[in-house]
Design a protein that fits this description.
mainly alpha, 5 strands, three-stranded antiparallel sheet, two-stranded antiparallel sheet, binds flavin-adenine dinucleotide, 15 helices
């Protein structure tokens, strides 16, 4: 079997089989549909941020690492306008208001309510709630990428460069000296790690497992002048996850992926009130499509909420108040650092998906630990909530979750190996 894990997950009252059934039957089909829509497939990202930690990294020359950004004509007009940032009912007005403000003009057609809404958006600085660094989407370096045309798959990125990234994540940014050359077991009860730090390690390890499942499941099997064959490479998967071949580590890493899945599912369940507000729109400028996709999104979130066996995040940061605050700050800083390490990944395709997945996980953590702000949110249409998500956070949250949904689905179907043939360009 591709996925060798069964039974109850540590730190959660949940078994793998229940998650698999729920994922494959309920979540997978709906999410697939949602992620192929314009709102979710176009992701704005800056792949040219310099690496903040070292300067001696080389240029990646691997052809499968290339990312093809969108031409301006490919991106829906609605996303290119500044309204997308707000995703609120008054977004058109807000855009006008912003333009008027920039010109120093007084636009008499704007209501006081709209003007006030814009001011609140501007005032709201949620930097302190964030667990990860976000790109400046207004920078000329940021570009739209069509995620469906740049899928995460095998790129050939490996060796000392890739190891330096993983090592910096585990050794310097994971609370525990953990070397990729000399792995310790941070999950062992004698590891001395508290539950929060253990959870942190498991999230990162789950993310690493997800990347490695994807590269094994969309592997370059063969290539000639005319075509490339992409498909499942079972021996690559076994080398990374088989119990014997990995001295027991592989199945633990797969279990960490389930843990990550549950954390993100929990965040989706919690964020339902934010998206349920009538003022929220998945704005692309195509009203019928936007409404349909919002309906689909809400169905998905209700489904996430119906899952009974969640991870209990209230168990985290629940000890001594002063220590808990300090621990939470460390958690945030460490995760922010990991999101910055993604700018050091030489392979652009790996950088794209690495950034998206860390931003998605950072957004999930922001949601989980903003319970009070989410509960205090007004649901009337024109009031801006104190809790906000940018389009970049929303797109990364759902696409990152999509990776894990796909991984679990792939694991189940590994018996039916599939190969895709793509014409060489
Ligand atoms: P690695 O995966 O590099 O792992 C290094 C060491 O870390 C292992 O030997 C093991 O000790 C430990 N380890 C491995 N997995 C886990 C885990 N789940 N939990 C804890 N410890 C673990 N390659 C692609 O082909 N396509 C991609 O899209 C892609 N994206 C990447 C994104 C990022 C951010 C990074 C850093 C790398 C990416 N790579 C990608 C490279 C890929 O992850 C591997 O590094 C590469 O395939 C080499 O694998 P490896 O066998 O040397 O082990």
């Amino acid at each position: 079997c591709f996925c060798q894990v069964t039974g109850t997950l540590d730190d959660c009252a949940c078994d793998v089989e229940t998650i698999d059934r729920f994922n494959n039957k309920e979540i997978f089909p709906k999410l697939q549909k949602l992620l192929s829509s314009d709102y979710f497939r176009f992701y704005k990202v800056n792949l040219n941020n310099p690496c903040p930690f070292w300067t001696d990294h080389s240029q990646c020359g691997l052809k499968y690492c290339a990312v093809k950004p969108c031409t301006p004509g490919e991106v829906p007009e609605g996303l290119k306008s500044s309204s997308y940032k707000y995703s609120e009912a008054a977004s058109q007005d807000l855009e006008e208001c912003e333009k008027a403000e920039k010109l120093g003009a007084v636009n008499g057609s704007l209501s006081d309510e709209t003007r006030q809404a814009l001011q609140e958006w501007k005032k709201h600085d949620d930097e302190s709630d964030r667990f990860c660094m976000l790109d400046d989407v207004d920078s000329p370096e940021s570009q739209y990428v069509d995620l469906l045309l740049n899928p995460e798959r095998f790129t050939g990125y490996k060796g000392p460069e890739a190891w330096r990234i993983w090592n910096s994540i585990y050794e310097e940014n994971c609370f525990k000296p953990y070397s990729v050359k000399r792995p310790l077991n941070p999950l062992a009860s004698n590891s001395g790690l508290c539950v929060e730090k253990r959870a942190f390690f498991r999230l990162i390890s789950g993310l690493h497992a997800s990347i490695n499942i994807h590269l094994s499941a969309r592997y370059l099997l063969d290539e000639n002048w005319f075509e490339m064959k992409w498909g499942h490479n079972v021996s690559e998967f076994q080398l990374r996850f088989d119990k014997e071949l990995t001295e027991g580590e592989g199945p633990k890493r797969l279990r960490n992926l389930y843990f990550l899945y549950l954390i993100e599912l929990r965040a989706l369940a919690k964020i339902l009130p934010y998206f349920e507000r009538p003022a929220f729109h998945l704005y692309t400028g195509q009203p019928t499509e936007d409404n349909e996709k919002k309906k689909l999104l809400l169905e998905l979130l209700h489904m996430a909420k119906s899952f009974p066996l969640h991870f209990d995040e209230t168990a985290l940061f629940a000890g001594n108040k002063k220590e808990a605050i300090k621990l939470k700050e460390d958690f945030k800083l460490t995760f922010k650092n990991i999101s910055r390490v993604m700018d050091c990944v030489e392979c652009f395709k790996c950088r794209l998906w690495g950034k998206l997945q860390t931003q998605g996980l950072g957004t999930a953590l922001k949601i989980l630990f903003s319970e009070r702000q989410i509960e205090a949110m007004p649901n009337t249409s024109n009031t801006n909530p104190s809790f906000q998500l940018s389009r970049q956070e929303i797109v990364s949250l759902f696409n990152a979750f999509g990776r894990y949904v796909n991984d679990l689905h792939k694991c189940q179907r590994a018996g039916q190996l599939s190969v895709t043939v793509v014409k060489s360009q």
